[in-house]
Design brief:
alpha/beta; two-stranded antiparallel sheet; 330 residues; homohexamer; eight-stranded parallel beta barrel; 41% helix
Amino acid sequence: MPRPVLLFTGSWADQRLEELAAQAAEWGYQGLDLCCWGDHFEVQRALTEEEYAPAKLDLLRRLELEAPVLSSHRVSQAVCDPIDERHRALLPDYVWGDGAPAGVQQRATEEMIATVRAAHKLGVNVLAGFTGSPIWSYVLGYPSPSKAVVEEGLREFVHRWTPILEVCQECGIRYAFEVHPGQIAFDLYSAERVLDALNEREEFGFTLDPAHLHWQGIDPVEFIRRFPDRIYHVHVKDVAITLNGRSGLLGSYLPYDDPRRGWHPRAPGRGGLDWEGIIRALNAAGYSGALAVEWQDPGMDRLQGAEEACKFVKRLDFEPPPRAEEQAFR
Amino acid sequence: MPRPVLLFTGSWADQRLEELAAQAAEWGYQGLDLCCWGDHFEVQRALTEEEYAPAKLDLLRRLELEAPVLSSHRVSQAVCDPIDERHRALLPDYVWGDGAPAGVQQRATEEMIATVRAAHKLGVNVLAGFTGSPIWSYVLGYPSPSKAVVEEGLREFVHRWTPILEVCQECGIRYAFEVHPGQIAFDLYSAERVLDALNEREEFGFTLDPAHLHWQGIDPVEFIRRFPDRIYHVHVKDVAITLNGRSGLLGSYLPYDDPRRGWHPRAPGRGGLDWEGIIRALNAAGYSGALAVEWQDPGMDRLQGAEEACKFVKRLDFEPPPRAEEQAFR
Amino acid sequence: MPRPVLLFTGSWADQRLEELAAQAAEWGYQGLDLCCWGDHFEVQRALTEEEYAPAKLDLLRRLELEAPVLSSHRVSQAVCDPIDERHRALLPDYVWGDGAPAGVQQRATEEMIATVRAAHKLGVNVLAGFTGSPIWSYVLGYPSPSKAVVEEGLREFVHRWTPILEVCQECGIRYAFEVHPGQIAFDLYSAERVLDALNEREEFGFTLDPAHLHWQGIDPVEFIRRFPDRIYHVHVKDVAITLNGRSGLLGSYLPYDDPRRGWHPRAPGRGGLDWEGIIRALNAAGYSGALAVEWQDPGMDRLQGAEEACKFVKRLDFEPPPRAEEQAFR
Amino acid sequence: MPRPVLLFTGSWADQRLEELAAQAAEWGYQGLDLCCWGDHFEVQRALTEEEYAPAKLDLLRRLELEAPVLSSHRVSQAVCDPIDERHRALLPDYVWGDGAPAGVQQRATEEMIATVRAAHKLGVNVLAGFTGSPIWSYVLGYPSPSKAVVEEGLREFVHRWTPILEVCQECGIRYAFEVHPGQIAFDLYSAERVLDALNEREEFGFTLDPAHLHWQGIDPVEFIRRFPDRIYHVHVKDVAITLNGRSGLLGSYLPYDDPRRGWHPRAPGRGGLDWEGIIRALNAAGYSGALAVEWQDPGMDRLQGAEEACKFVKRLDFEPPPRAEEQAFR
Amino acid sequence: MPRPVLLFTGSWADQRLEELAAQAAEWGYQGLDLCCWGDHFEVQRALTEEEYAPAKLDLLRRLELEAPVLSSHRVSQAVCDPIDERHRALLPDYVWGDGAPAGVQQRATEEMIATVRAAHKLGVNVLAGFTGSPIWSYVLGYPSPSKAVVEEGLREFVHRWTPILEVCQECGIRYAFEVHPGQIAFDLYSAERVLDALNEREEFGFTLDPAHLHWQGIDPVEFIRRFPDRIYHVHVKDVAITLNGRSGLLGSYLPYDDPRRGWHPRAPGRGGLDWEGIIRALNAAGYSGALAVEWQDPGMDRLQGAEEACKFVKRLDFEPPPRAEEQAFR
Amino acid sequence: MPRPVLLFTGSWADQRLEELAAQAAEWGYQGLDLCCWGDHFEVQRALTEEEYAPAKLDLLRRLELEAPVLSSHRVSQAVCDPIDERHRALLPDYVWGDGAPAGVQQRATEEMIATVRAAHKLGVNVLAGFTGSPIWSYVLGYPSPSKAVVEEGLREFVHRWTPILEVCQECGIRYAFEVHPGQIAFDLYSAERVLDALNEREEFGFTLDPAHLHWQGIDPVEFIRRFPDRIYHVHVKDVAITLNGRSGLLGSYLPYDDPRRGWHPRAPGRGGLDWEGIIRALNAAGYSGALAVEWQDPGMDRLQGAEEACKFVKRLDFEPPPRAEEQAFR
């Protein structure tokens, strides 16, 4: 297995890290993609308590687990999103404050800068997360946004994220933005546009979430081929498209476990993704980062599933030939 | 041809009605689905000038055109949408006012009530339009809305639309809400839910827009079968799905004529819709209303296209057997 | 148009032939495929009244209609079917008699012999029809029939049909058996077997009913290629497969116009058949017989449909090159 | 593995139960779905010999095998089928008697009542089997059955089965009727109709046989969703659809191992069924009964196959989350 | 109809131009794509007889036919092909000479230069044709060609064609090379490579032959999008893919009319091409050249077919909007 | 596992046989399909050194490896191919000589005869290889070959190969010609034709290479059914079709590891082949020969892949029932 198989801890924040890490090691994982909520990784403590980050690393090291990636999806969402009540549950109290949008965005930005510094302290070089988006709500609605509105949205995104990316550059940290509905980019062409808006600055690349591309009709293989140098992190989770004439891809506001939806998140290998093609494309792109299982399958017990998922990813991953092999025959 | 073929005038509001109507008659249309913008149908004038509505009818009658449907998509959008700059271009100045959201919503509601009364004056019994939606922006984004947030959104919708529907009931007018992205319902199950929220009150039914169902993966035939008594109006326009691995169904904020999109509106018969199945389902549902061509094809000259579309719809439509035919053989 | 386009009158037996023929001529048909029920063609009268057949021909000739095919599906069904109440409605009283199965089968055989002779009097050389089957009910049921049971069924078929085919041979008439569910053959391999059981006697060939092959998953083009010399007649009607996860191909005993069925007969050109491929295969097979529209579409008015169908078939049919054309270029 | 994996012994009745049970235990099965033919379970002995049923249970218990289901497909077929020679091989001599249809049906009914009582003695609470059908032969044949004929067939079914179901009720036994070609119900809508005809009495539910739904074009997932409370037993076997333009779904009377057929029974996991979807739908329906392997693969050695099948089902089955899991993230 | 509909005369060279032109005009064509064989256009006469080209133009003008394109597929094939007996039938005697390969290639080059000059005399600005290829025979064979072999083949192509393209440049003529099996480019990526090898010189572009792209699995729409400025001519002909498990895409050396082939040339509109998409892509690319019907359908009489094809192309073609239309609604 | 799983050594000729054999045994292979290049099997030494063949066998026997098949693809290619520079790398110097085509072909024929005799010495009874082809380059090119050209090509093939096949007959060796692009037969119908040209002489049969059939659109199952008695050897390798609108099946001269190709060779089980169907068809055909892994996957490390492939084939293969099993139930 050429790449470390991680468990992304974001779906397990109800458990204490100590327990979760022990389980993950037992299931066979080689490391954790730590989330910045629950007790998994607390940014302010990491910055203010000298022993915090080393203690985390020590805990993991005893279990022979790596921690090459830190994830901050919740706070990053608030940086350039129009803030509303839904964000309260995502944010620490000190970021939410009185909930007045401008202040929340400002404090979220500061917290992200702190997160970059904390990541640096932890010794990771990839920070994964979202962006939020001032224009997401216009994506399919009515009236369609004018060209100017889209451009203004991108400008705002650049304006709000540049200070964070500056600190990334300073600390040698790459920000692995997860291309995802609800964000400034969610498909191949919006991802192109975002890179362009940032003048392709190197600190900013992508977390590949193939499941959310697949149900949109996009082939993750084409995405990897388009951005071979910008895949900074990979989430492994699957998706099943379950169209039957009545269900729809927009999901009818139904929760993930409702069979009337048109697509469903699934444990790795139990949906419709072409993992063979994805791994080959990652090999061709020279991706050498981690493969992090994001557990999200409302129809399967997560304890059974997380262990299976780890085995699945290990079986899936394979080595390309050491160099362009001379084709001896045919 | 059992059903009148109309031209929906919303895409032609840059032309004066007088000219457009003459053209439509020449192209073979049997009537118009008049929009409430441009000079096609001005609500306030219709209510205040005794001769306004009769003059419109007279104009059409001279061309042997019917006017069985009135359309008010622009103002209706503002009734329960979160208001922003995009709405300014949709609304008459007297509705936009100072643009403060609460006031705009209030004035939009009043304008819709006026529109119902004006429709009554015009003698139509179907008013078509949108709803806007307080929860559209949450449809695919992050974080997913909780059950409570969705329910609250529906309650707000009911609260804001009930006064308008009361006047519909009073005037004998059916509101044909177009199930469409950006609205309170956009697919089969959200449409179920909206009917339920309104206690299935009879004034409220649907404008079938099969194109926007199709690209979501929903079969318009199943939609018709699910709501046979609630199809109050039908828009005829087509859609082509053009996925190639890179394009996506969410459209990347690209305009309709950009080939990188994953779906494209098309002239009737030039996309992927199963019109045969749709007409048979409308026949089975006993739908006897109009079929209104909504012109929306950024790749085709609209003058050439509108005439072709009229012919297409006439060729498409056919009579079911007069009664349950005794099957004479086999 | 190289081949005559006929209207098969079986679905119109509630109308008097005189009226129907006049309509058919007006719709553009070039002839009729006359059924032996209603007043369209009465076998016993044709045999006993010298003027009967000539009068029919005269009626058609005045309308410039041909009558190259006679059809006897109803009586032929009773020749080797297990007789039950359903057959009563199919048979003339003098064939049904007291309904005791052995007698009914015997009288049906005699009536078929009479039909061959009557066809000869009428001057046609193709008689179309069914066979019935002693083993149809075992086709998918439980327990599966043993090899011996199937062979015994075929022997019975041969035994019962040989006397009729003898008279066909005597009169120069080809029997165009319609491969169809409920009959001794219903698909490609059962058709092979039936020809084999009859030692491929020349009087016995097939009416191609592409619709009933299609929903079974069989390509009519392959059927034509397999039996190029045995296509003696062609029925033109279409079929739509409407599977949606709940509907099934066996049809749930639902009538043809129930949308819950998995397939539906349709007017020609309005279903899923590859007519282009069928016509090319007929051309390649050298088929020069008629193309007879069998009207069977429970969702469409038959008066509108029959005219459209005639135009469809004329447009569909085309000439192959006069001889193996020298390919001048590429 | 949440559900017991059984071997249905019906395909192994040529072996003595003692041997078969030992093998099954060795292969890893957790129980048997005992058939009432061969020496596996003899109804009359069970009723008359006090030690018979306990001895069977004892045999199984020594091998740590359960016996939660009894199967009586052969006799149940004769209860309302039109009786012919094929049934002789299915029935014990004392049920066949002189073979006169009315008597056979009567004795089959009595034997089924005896079977219910014997099942009760054995301590099972699910009895699986067929029904036979007075109208199966009309399903696709000609002429189509009238509405009245279908209704009469259902009434006869209800009439003949009610006495048996009364005894089921008395004994606390559920009858798991296998929806299957040849039976009173064979697809989703005929299953609806049968439940309706029985006023949805609780003793009567279904054995899910997903393979026979699949080749008809029906999605077993939709079947489970339609009848979540009526899945009383599940057979695990697969099917491959092998259409190539010439083969057909009705199978041409060819045996299962003939490659010219359009579908073929296959060992579990070696055909086209979506087992992932089926297990999730069973989980969603709360099905907690057994999963019984029905061995039926004419292209594979059954000794090799039965062991593999057991492993396949164990690997397939998985636990849903303990309760509606709070979705911690996204 | 925005673009002239031509008949490419290459498939009709057995007829005298005078007759063919009269027929073409009657069928509705607006011009001819003249081939340089038969008596349609004789290069040496055009260069040496002052009245030859004017007389041809005069003939066409009397029939109101244009002649905007000249085609020289046969001689162009010999420019860089390995010469063998098959070429003899393609070439005038004075080009074939003694058939020694080097001499034939040299004389073919000279004849092509003469053809460019003759085209100039005729007043056309598009010359269509092939290239031949030194490496075609390696395309799928064994052993695969090394990178060096492919590069050497391209160099040879450039070397041989440069003198011809120099004269094109001098005369203001664009060479519309038909991307086609047997040529230096036959798919999208080989076309890229050829343009690159020629340093994208402007005289060299493509004749789009969508049929030969389609059966290779390539979407002609993607081809047009890749080379919007290089589509210099368009051939309209269709293709049907007829795979059935036994037929193959390489065609088994079978002639076009053999049903065992895996693909078949077809009259326009009678195959599998997405003409709607092709026309829209040509519109988007700003292609304003001709649409030339290339008749090649071995299953259809060419007299019937050529007329139908003309109507088909006229119906197919349509105008894009005059300018980027302001989207008035939605 | 009923059939021996071999490793075809042709793709490993850069390794010494001694090492390779040891690895193969360790990976689980049961034998080798030895190639006649590298040091794996040297024909002239085998014929002239008494101990050569026995020593090879001894080496394998010590590792418990069989050697039932010898492969001579490289020299066999030159027997009736038009010789060019590409062949130099394939041939031993003593066969290439001065490279003059006629001499090379002659010496290749002699070397093939020697190979047959050497195979006999080694004790194998299957010799696998290619044929070359005088007409391959015409397969899709322009101009199409006339019927006469194809027949002449076949005659030349028969002429050149008959001497070799005579020696096969003499030695009791079957020649397993690999149906493959670049050869005299490459699909089902060309394979038919070659057998016919050879009067179906028994020494000549096929190596099944399902991957090269699949991307041509041919079902390997149909190939096996068509030639059940002529499958003399089987290569196990897979292929992925990766069409995306731009890539094409002819491959653009791109190497196998270029993602722009339309198909890619893949490790067994990692492509699109229906192995289940292939094994069942081989079982039905009674094939009892070897299954030889041909390693050809430019995206996977061959050391990891070869071991996995061996396991894959062992898992894949299974026993058919010992005899036509009596179907005990249903």
